[in-house]
Structures are given as C-alpha cells and as structure tokens.
Amino acid sequence: MITAGAPHAARLRRALDRARYDQASLEALLGAPDVRLSSDEQRALWAWRARSDREGRAVLARLFLLESPVPLAAARRALGDAGLEAALALALARPRAATLEPRAQIGVHAGLLIAGDLELGPGARRARRDHAGGPTTATILLDRLTVRRPAARALDLGCGGGYLALRLASHATTVWATDVSRRALRYASLNAALNGQETRVRFVTSDRFSALAGEAFDLITGNLPFVISPEARFVFRDAGLRSDGFLASVVRETGRHLVEGGIAQYLGQWVHREEAADVGAEEARLATWVHAAGCDALVIRLERDPVDAYTTRWLAGPERPLSADERARRMARWMAHYRRAGIRAISTGLICLRRRARGRHLFAIEESSAAAPPDGVAIASWFEAR
After folding, report:
1. How far apart are CA 14 and CA 194, in angstroms?
2. Does the reported pTM lie above 0.90?
3. Does 2 score more than 70 pLDDT?
4. Tens of pLDDT along 282-324?
5. What does the alpha-carbon distance between residue 87 and residue 102 come to, in Å, rounded to a whole number?
6. Could you give the domains of the chain?
C-alpha cells in the first residue's frame, strides 16, 4: 500500500538527486528509444547499458525504470541508508534475501519524478482493476496540448498519478486534482511530495464533478477513462457508461465549473454509427453536449478507427501479452458489443471548451494527427482569434 509521508519523500528525492536519477543523466546512460526494436529488445538493450552495480544511476534505472531486482548492497550504495529507508517506508521497494525488489516504478517526465504501479508485478497474471501506472502516451499528449497561461485556479479531472496536476502547478496558483480511484490519489499525493509540491495541490476523491459543487476554475484538464468497450476492466481506462455517455456527461457539466472565459480540455472518444464519415451528423450530435455546457468548442479529431482496428489497439491494457485464444475470444466479445450498439467507428480527439455565458456559441471540428497535433499555444490562439 502506498503511503505519502512528506519527510520520507523528501529524503528519497535527495537520494535520487545525489545518484543523478534525472532525465538528462538517464538518457545519457540508456540512450533514446530505438524504433527498430521491439519492447522486449529495447528493454534488454537498456538492461545491458545499466548493468553496472557500481554506478548509482544504473542500479536505480534497473530497479525503478526496468522494474528488475538489484543486489541489496548495490541499492544501499546508490541510495544511502536514509534513501533506502525512505524507499522501504514508502513501500516503493522491498528486500528479499540479498536483493531489493521494486514495488513501484519511478519515471522522470518533464523534470518531475512520477511513481506508479509496476507494469505487472512479479508473479501477477493480470493487472489490478485499480492499476495506477505512470503517465501514458495519452497523458503526455494532453500535456502538450494544454493551454499554458497563468491561472488562479486549475483542476485536473481524473488525475491518476498526478502528473498533469503537477504540470498545472507550474502556472496556476491553486490546483485541485480529483480521481475516483483512491489508489491513484495515493500515488498522486506521493508524487506531489516527491516534487516538493504537496502544499500546492489539493487531492479530492470524486466521480467526475460529484465532489466539486460550487467550485469553478480558470483551466480544467482531463485525460479521462475514455475507452468505449463492453468491459469495466480498468478504472483508468474503461469509460463504463453506454457508448460515449461518459464523455458526454463530463462535457455537459463542465460549464458550471468554469469561470467566464475559462478553458477545459479533455481527451476523449466518441462513436459513429455510419460507415462513411458524416461530419454534419457528428457536429450536430457533439454540439448538443457543448451547448448544454454554455461553451464555445474546438474539437480536434486525432484519429478515426473502424471498430475492429480500434479493438485490436485497446484490448489488452497493462497486462502480459494475451494468448491467441484469449485475444480472439475477447475480440469477438467486443465486436459483438459494437454490432448490438450499431457502432461502426470510433474517433479519438481533444475537446476544448471555453466558457462564454452570452452570445451564439462557436463550434468547430478540425482534423489533425496524433503524430503531429497542435500545441497549447495554437489552441489558445484559435479561441483568441474568435
């Protein structure tokens, strides 16, 4: 179980800093990812480059990045007695005989130390339902898309391990961060302490806006559990409501929690019930969500996948590779669900809202690419120009 004692977190942070466990040093040691290698091949290469038991950053890279046991004596040299004691007290590692085993990963993202669940713990056959890993590709994408402007109050809705909330703290006076998962919030609290931000971010257990009555913000971000499927396998992934009802419920409610001129940005997915793209029908349906929120909206579509391709991409989650039989069985279940619901394709994109109480609201859908999306500056400029 994760605890978030600030003194332990501060001692661990100092130990990691002494060992040069930072982005530049780790990249110098391991090198950048090689697109020609499979994930297993990349991991093997990094393990080879971090094989030294004498270099602190190499030992800690194996322990916390590659999630591999290391000699206990080497870990003690790398962290020092106080750092090792802090890692044990925070339940981030555990001794076993002459080795130290990881119980969590610690990644470095935009200069922040971010702890999260192991990809899959030793001996585990499947991930926990409340799995709380580090920042995902979607998290990093939303970070890039976020409008970075000074804010008195900001909110990260569905904060997971707190990475986006800590990024908001760089330009917001007060940050709120909510999640329905208590496990995710414990990691988020720990990560705030690891980065010296425990007094800047307020963590609240909340299903969407349920615990935020009467609260309004200048900026809201949300990497929501947006996957549309027949499953409720993972709290962080699966939307849970029929079709795209989860995203619709968040968008409709957002206006009540934005100050005038405030901006909200959500990564999400929405369904199509026609074979070919029908932008008119899509605009009409999404616009009803936005008008209920009393906001202008820019929707940036990043991808549109037929449901078989969509299922192939999202089926597994943070688990060991599925067997051929298990993959086929679950894919058949997902495809039957889409047939019954009349869903032919699913779009992934960013929904940007700006609160405006008066006048005719603007609404636009623009096409982009997940490989080369706009950034927060371009999105802010779109609203300012209108």
Report:
1. 9
2. yes
3. no
4. 888 999 999 889 999 999 999 999 999 999 999 988 877 788 9
5. 10
6. 6-103 (no CATH), 137-384 (3.40.50.150)
